Amino acid sequence: MRKTEFDTVMLEEARAHRRERQSRHVVCPQTTLSAPVVLEGVGLHTGRMIRMDLHPAGAGFGIVFRRTDLGNAGAEVTDIPARYDHVGDTTLSTAIRNDVGTSISTVEHLMAALSALRVDNAFIEVNGPEIPVMDGSSKEFIETIEAIGLKTLNAPRRAVRILKPVVVEDGLKRAALLPGEGFRLAFEIDFDNQVIGHQVIEADFNDPSFNDDILNARTFGMLKDVEAMWSAGLGLGGSLENTIVVDGDRVLNDEGLRFDDEFVRHKVLDAVGDLALAGAPLIGRYEGVRAGHAMNNRVLRALFADRSAWELVELGAAPVAAEGLRAMAVPAE
Ligand SMILES: [Zn+2]
What we know:
Distance between the termini: 63 Å
CATH architecture: 2-Layer Sandwich
Helix content: 10-25%
Order of helices and strands: HEEEEHEEEHEHEEEEEEHEHEEHEHE
Bound molecules: zinc ion
Largest sheet: 7 strands, mixed
Number of helices: 8
CATH superfamily: lpxc deacetylase, domain 2
Structural class: alpha+beta
């Protein structure tokens, strides 16, 4: 069969399209969930059953929460971006709030799961003021998201590379972000308690065992603190189902500990979740000493307040220009 001029033109166009598609091939693409998924559980503060609907979202969207219990009040009322500069209360957990004051608390264990599974974009509807606590770790979030799977998006993942040390201190508490390859976290706690005591850990976020070793570690409290909290009407959803409770030299949970040093492992989990509020993965090293949610947020704010302390890079490529910043929800200056 002889090729007509028309066929030749069509063939050229097809080749041009293929070249264009290949040139847009992204080295390390952003991701989102492959399909919507629902999770339900008790809220730690309110003790109420909370339903959470996780939806896929497009490239550059980031992680955004919507309070569906506020009706059709409009996005400026119901929607809260998962960003460090929206962090409000950090007393018992990390709460984020929007410009009109709508807040959602206990985001850190879910943020840790999204971060560890490399979910860049998701729209998350929640029918209450907090994320369900589940078993007190990120385990059920990880399992649910892993079961539904991810899809890649046609846009490069960007990361925040730490260029110089940023340290915040408050008495004996310390949190630091330091330059380094990959993303590593070191943590140290020191409790005047026989079960917890002095614990030190160093963890590599990119290690395949990170999720099992770190993100299964549960939140914890001392019995006297837990009792004081409950009698003050706080932490109404807290129980031995979702909190390790320590009384002197005893762990009150029948099943015991998942790891001998589950306490310091959970502090690393919290740090991963709090630091995920950077809006992009970090490249560098985190060090925490007796640090909690407040210190984790303070060190992120200190990092982004110093424009010479970080740069935005496309993973697997060169640093990107500053106009890319807005899409990644990290501050322009
Ligand atoms: Zn926690």
